[in-house]
Amino acid sequence: MMNKLILLAASATFLLGMGISQHDRSGQPVITSEREAKWVKSRTGAWAAYKDGKSYWYKLDKNARLWWSPNGRDWSEVPEGMWADKQNKWLKIGEGKLWWTNDDGKNFEEVPEWKWQGPRGEWYKFDAKWTLWVTR
Q: In degrees, to the nearest 5, what angle opens at C-alpha 82 toward C-alphas 38 and 97?
């Protein structure tokens, strides 16, 4: 009798676990870390970011100058040349490198591997030619 109860409890636990696993797999794939992600070249060269609580698109021109758009169609050059990542670090391009700051621009450090996280959890990076790559 005890063996049957243990077997029944183990079976129920297994079946419940399977139901949860199937439910998790039915939605979008979940990337648990940037390292597990597959990098692909961005088709548009644009990335998402927030500024003052609003969503914007950003992109670079051929001279690595920064442009932004609220809708992805109408673009304006960003005078200060900076955008924010998911952790509200401000990023900018200068001296041929990608930089970020945590203290409103008082001190900048080079961004490791030129990677940053977007507002929706996606990862972006530039290569040496300022080509944008994104995780999928």
A: 65
Q: Residue 53 corresponds to which tokens in the numbers above?
A: 């609580």
Euclidean distance between the first and the last CA atom of the chain, given in angstroms as a whole number: 51
Beta bridge partners of 132: 126
Contact assessment for residue 51 and residue 58, using Cβ atoms and an 8 Å cutoff: no
Distance CA 63, CA 51 (A): 23
* pLDDT 10s digits, 43-53: 999 999 987 88
Distances in Å between the Cα of 38 and the Cα atoms of 20, 24, 63, 122 are 25, 20, 27, 11
Chain segment 102-128, per-residue pLDDT in tens: 888 889 999 999 999 999 899 999 999
| Cα separations in angstroms, 81 against 21, 54, 91, 94 | 44, 17, 8, 9
Give the Cα separation of 34 and 114 in Å (integer): 13
